Amino acid sequence: MRTNPHILEINAQNWLKHIREKLGQNITLADMPEDQLFSIKALGFDAIWLMGVWKESPASREIARQDKTINDYLAKTVPQYSKQDIAGSQYAIYDYSVDDNLGGNEALLKLKKRLNDFGIQLILDFAGNHFSKDNPLVLERKELFVYSDEEPKQKDLFYQTEKGYWLAHGKDPHFPPWTDSVQINHFNPQTRDFLKNIIRKIVPMCDGLRCDMVILMLNKVFRDTWGAFVKEQAPAEEFWPQIIEEIKAENPGFVFLAEVYWGLEWEVQEMGFDYTYDKTLYDRLRFSTPQDIQGHLNAEHLYQKRSLRFIANHDEEAPVTAFGKEKSKAAAAAAYTLIGARLYTMSQIYGKKNRMPIQYRQNFGQPDEESFQFYKKLLEITDSPCFHGGQWTIRNPKPVNKEDFSFKNILCWAWTQQTTQKIVIINYCDAVSKCIMPLDKVPSAENMVLKEHFRQNETVLSSSQAKKEGVLLEMQPFEVKIFSVDF
């Protein structure tokens, strides 16, 4: 993949449902139409994160179909929904083989080859913290899980198997347990070997792994959550460094993405992960000030380089709803013009206003044309080599006078590559703001041409005056400008 790659998250089951209904044919992943793959490449994506390809859990499906929260939400947002369209959670995995509805392992391998031929890499999920509660292993190898032979006091955390012992549900310490899952015992060396063998098994099927809830597998987090329920002590080493090193030694281009929060991103990056979720940026774009956003972007350069930027994924509200229409565009321009990997979702590009439960299998429908055209343009702009091979630097806009502090609302950074510079400037507030945009380099010619990509207009300036005085800008609420200067 390119430096600062563009990654598209697609719900595998929904994608196939969409294409099947469009074609009127019961195809598998192997039969994905050529124009679908071409359109993804044409938009400028380096990789697809194909979410939810693994074998569905029957128990998880039944739990989801009876779940009141899921049904009430669907009844409100999709009144015509059918319970038959509710599936099991893609993260309560029954088995690490491709679901039959998608065509099985062979279909996925054929799709991978076709994607690779287009220059697109395939990323799949690995959920190392838990399996589905009906996974066959729960009756065959209880030692792999957090279990109790006696009825536990915390009954809400456990369920009883037909063999009489009790197994813990998967759990984030800040939330109730996932009742369709079973918690893996990360302190058991046998469990670790078992998980590493799963990774070795699925690596040939893809070009990268998006690793779910990596934080829950860290020794200190697992100890604090489950230490009272397991007899083993914390291992001397973390799970991830050895297996990542092994896989990368055999597959140098293989990519590991980590879902991680709680300020543990840098720690996880040091374990060998190529990219870690930048939830801090998401939260600051959504809830904080431009100054707070810029403060986050002043973090160490290598940390920034290994951050996965996003304003949408299957866990977050749809951007249009979470941010508002215009602010979502400004947030997208900010996130996707930074150093690091850039994650989009199909629903986001289609302009969907509601985040559906991941268990709901839906046709993508028709895209909102305004949203689609915005993201198409943004992807086109950031497809430039400058945004991938250039040098990224934060810029500090200047005030137009001593009384006007609106310049503090403006975010600005630049990308420089050889004879080209891209300057991103965003008024990240709901009021008109003014600033002087500084220029560190200008053409040697008497005049310079400042090209603005979104509006496709040009401004001719005196090179010497622009370098001395900068460029005066008046920005509308949440307005985005991306300039190009050639030297």
List the helices and strands and how they pair.
Layout: E1 6-11, H1 12-23, H2 34-42, E2 47-51, E3 54-55, H3 58-66, H4 68-77, E4 95-98, H5 104-117, E5 121-126, E6 130-132, H6 137-140, E7 147-148, E8 158-160, E9 166-168, E10 181-183, H7 189-202, E11 208-211, H8 219-226, H9 240-250, E12 255-258, H10 265-269, E13 275-277, H11 279-287, H12 290-297, H13 301-305, E14 307-310, H14 319-323, H15 325-335, E15 341-345, H16 346-349, H17 369-382, H18 386-389, E16 391-394, E17 410-417, E18 420-427, E19 433-437, E20 447-452, E21 457-462, H19 463-469, E22 471-475, E23 480-486
Parallel strand pairs: 1-2, 1-15, 2-5, 5-11, 11-12, 12-13, 13-14, 14-15
Antiparallel strand pairs: 3-4, 6-10, 7-9, 8-9, 16-17, 17-18, 18-23, 19-22, 20-21, 20-23
Helix pairs in contact: 11-12
Annotation keywords:
23 strands; TIM Barrel; 6-stranded antiparallel β-sheet; Immunoglobulin-like; 33% helix; alpha/beta
Structure description:
There is one protein chain. The chain is of the alpha/beta class and 487 residues long. It has two domains: 344 residues, TIM Barrel; 96 residues, Golgi alpha-mannosidase II (Immunoglobulin-like, Sandwich). It is 33% helix and 22% strand. The chain contains 19 helices and 23 strands. The strands form six sheets. Strands 1-2-5-11-12-13-14-15 form an eight-stranded parallel barrel. A six-stranded antiparallel β-sheet has the order 16-17-18-23-20-21. The longest helix is centred in the first third of the chain and has 14 residues. The two termini are 28 Å apart. The relative contact order is 0.10.
